[in-house]
Amino acid sequence: MDDRMLADVRRGLLEDDGLARWARGHGVLLGHEGLDRAAEAVRSELSGAGPLQALVDEPGVTDVLVNGPTEVWVDRGEGLERRAVDLGGPERLRSLAVRLAASGGQRLDDACPVADACLRDGVRVHAVLPPIADTVLLSLRVPRSEPFSLGGLVAARGVHRDLAPVLVGLMRGRANGLVTGATGTGKTTLLAALLGLAAPHERLVCVEEVPELEPAHPHVVRLVVRRANVEGAGGVGLVDLVRHALRMRPDRIVLGECRGAEVREVLAALNTGHDGGWATLHANAPADVPARLAALGALAGLTGTALVAQASGALDVVVHLRRDGGLRRVAEVGLLRHDLERIWVENAAVADPHGGLSPGPAWAELHRRWPAP
Fold it and tell me: What's the pLDDT tens digit per position in 44-65?
């Protein structure tokens, strides 16, 4: 529900006088402030996260996790904190999960007990019903109201100050790169900040499974996966969207998350003159990136030799993130290397959580190929 709809709800409460009459019947005088709270509650129930909306709206919250009717956790960047919230029992929690999934256009019931949806305000919802889990599970990923800039990440200690010019050089020099890391390390946040450094005249075509990238850039086009309906028809996947992106005159092709057979199309695109492309990839360390690419390439039918040939010409750099307690940070930058049989990542710089930065063997080449401004 947008602000206009919220105003309509509030006006209806005033004009119809139904809520006011009910309140007077119970000996309560409800003024404008009370009507505002009532309208806000209606918005939370109709299009928001219901009883979880207050946690979603809390400044600094990045995740809201529900492990049952009375077990609710939030993450404000300093680790998980438990909150005293009662969601009213298993049936009410199930109803909330079903409504949230439906708000994002997804089905959630006994026949389809897992759903991944995105609400209108950008909150990403993942829901699981029993018997897949012991209880209803909800995971809400909350987007930032304003995207981080590279300078903001430096100030928040997410990027070492001496690495910031390196990242600017990579973007201005149109390097092709991967942002890697485990779940929740801030890959999407960093990628959005990097894309904000692209020249204003460039056209960015972002392909995502769920819309999360919000770069501060004047020309962004987004393609989002559409899942098949209950009859199994109408689905449009990442592989198809990457192919369509190539026909949209992109200056940069960006894949929000590389997780399957679409790796073949992305590598092919970056090998055909589309420099400056980026993607995120789940990996525990830069050394694991070749194995992850090989596994994804196998899903697309790529042999090991074909993967080496494609990746060696398509990818230049890996920017890896780690999470140390509540600190999400760029921990390593490396260059992709290859011979006739394999690919690997050679370290260019390692940043430690205490503010140190150690250049690696590829540091000089990194500066030579993509000089910092």
Answer: 455 567 889 889 988 889 899 9
Structure tokens at 51: 């009883």
- The arrangement of secondary structure in 150-369, i.e. its CATH architecture, is 3-Layer(aba) Sandwich (3.40)
Domains of the chain: which residue ranges? 1-46, 51-143, 150-369
pLDDT computed for residue 283 by the predictor: 95
HEC string for the chain: CCHHHHHHHHHHHHHHCHHHHHHHHCCCCCCHHHHHHHHHHHHHHHCCCHHHHHHHCCCCCCEEEECCCCCEEEECCCCEEEECCCCCCHHHHHHHHHHHHHHCCCCCECCECEEEEECCCCCEEEEECCCCCCCCEEEEECCCCCCCCHHHHHHCCCCCCCCHHHHHHHHHCCCCEEEEECCCCCHHHHHHHHHCCCCCCCCEEEEECCCCCCCCCCCEEEEECECCCCCCCCCECHHHHHHHHHCCCCCEEEECCCCCCHHHHHHHHHCCCCCCCEEEEECCCHHHHHHHHHHHHHHCCCCHHHHHHHHHHHCCEEEEEEEECCEEEEEEEEEEEECCCCEEEEEEEEECCCCCEEECCCHHHHHHHCCCC
- Architecture of 51-143 per CATH? 2-Layer Sandwich (3.30)
Give the chain's residues under pLDDT 70: 1-48, 145, 230-231
Separation CA 277–CA 296 (nearest Å): 18
Q: What six digits make up the tokens of 220?
A: 């962004």
First-to-last C-alpha distance (Å) of the chain: 44
Please state whether 252 falls in left (phi above 0), alpha (psi between -120 and 50) or beta: beta
Supply angle C-alpha 47, 51, 54, rounded to 5: 90
